[in-house]
Design goal:
Elements lengths: L17 H14 L9 H6 L13 E7 L6 H7 L5 E6 L6 H7 L3 E4 L5 H10 L5 E6 L2 E2 L2 H10 L7 E4 L1 E5 L2 E2 L10 E6 L3 E3 L8 E3 L3 E3 L4 E6 L2 H21 L6 H18 L6 H32 L1
């Protein structure tokens, strides 16, 4: 589940819109827990840390896929202003996503949706540099993490690195039920790694040792309930398609049983209840996602049988 981006300041007059100022203030509030304020791309450039100006480390590309991500995109872009290149692959946004990305200095490429794994690999393939950081639009790199990435890229000891992900659900940082530390491999030498081609829940296949960074990725995956329900629809459809590809079949009874187990597993056995009301709602939403994934699998099987 994913989407977010902010300021890689544009060239020209240097004037800042009200929308940009509001985004900067929001980012400042968000990053205050790390004891540092976010810097604009212009600020980074003055320090020799902006795009193309950091000669002390290996150059870094950032790859992001988008579809209608105008709300979170600017903050995401601002958080990676230290990178040498940002590539945004958009799958047909109808909002201001592309305009925001271009205004903040990203190179935008339009590509019809291929599924999460193949879409992200396409974005990686468009990058000009050997080292790549893959982000979702709703993820951000805090200043402390940016500094750690910069330090590691001066002399990488591994071909890829994992980072802990700080997941927020409806504004609350979830620390149980597998949501923390939720390590994900996102920084890597693209000649030694490739994204799996799964339609959903994709991951990197790495040819070599994977190191661990301590800096976090901040992930605002679910802004509110409406946003969560929309994602459940998308993810359950993709999950059902993935299962159908492997020859699996579903039934309403299987859907109900798996959904009930998902709730018990996440909320009770993995102690999701320690995350308060948000932990309860998240566990219910995850169970609903499982229910509809297997119900849609059953539905697709019925259609196939009737068409045979």
């Amino acid at each position: 589940m994913a989407a977010d981006l902010m300021s890689l300041s544009s060239k020209g007059s240097g004037k800042q819109s009200n929308r940009d100022r509001e985004g900067q203030r929001a980012a400042t509030r968000q990053y205050s827990e790390y004891g540092e304020e976010p810097r604009s791309a212009a600020d980074s450039s003055e320090r020799g840390e902006g795009i193309g100006l950091n000669a002390n480390r290996k150059p870094l590309s950032v790859a992001i896929i988008t579809l209608n991500e105008e709300e979170p995109l600017a903050d995401c872009l601002a958080s990676v202003a230290f990178a040498d290149e940002i590539v945004v692959v958009d799958s047909g946004s109808s909002d201001r996503t592309v305009a925001i990305a271009e205004a903040h200095g990203a190179r935008v490429i339009v590509q019809a949706w291929l599924g999460f794994g193949r879409q992200k690999q396409f974005a990686i393939d468009q990058c000009r540099h050997q080292w790549v950081l893959v982000l979702d639009a709703d993820e951000r790199i805090p200043p402390a993490t940016a500094q750690e990435i910069t330090a590691v890229l001066r002399q990488p000891a591994h071909v890829a690195y994992s980072l802990p992900r700080q997941n927020f659900f409806c504004g609350r940082w979830l620390k149980h039920a597998g949501w923390w530390p939720d390590r994900v491999v996102r920084l890597f030498d693209r000649t030694q790694a490739r994204m799996s081609d799964r339609l959903v829940h994709e991951g990197l296949v790495v040819d070599g040792p994977v190191g661990q960074l301590q800096g976090v990725i901040v992930h605002h995956a679910n802004r509110d309930i409406a946003h969560t329900l929309a994602k459940i629809n998308d993810y359950s459809s993709a999950g059902a398609a993935e299962l159908a590809k492997s020859g699996r079949k579903g039934s309403p009874w299987q859907a109900a049983a798996r959904s009930a187990w998902a709730f018990v597993h996440n909320y009770l056995l993995r102690r999701g209840f320690l995350d308060g009301k948000e932990g309860f709602v998240q566990a219910v939403c995850d169970a609903v996602n499982v229910f509809f994934k297997y119900t849609k699998l059953w539905e697709s099987g019925r259609r196939k049988d009737r068409g045979a």
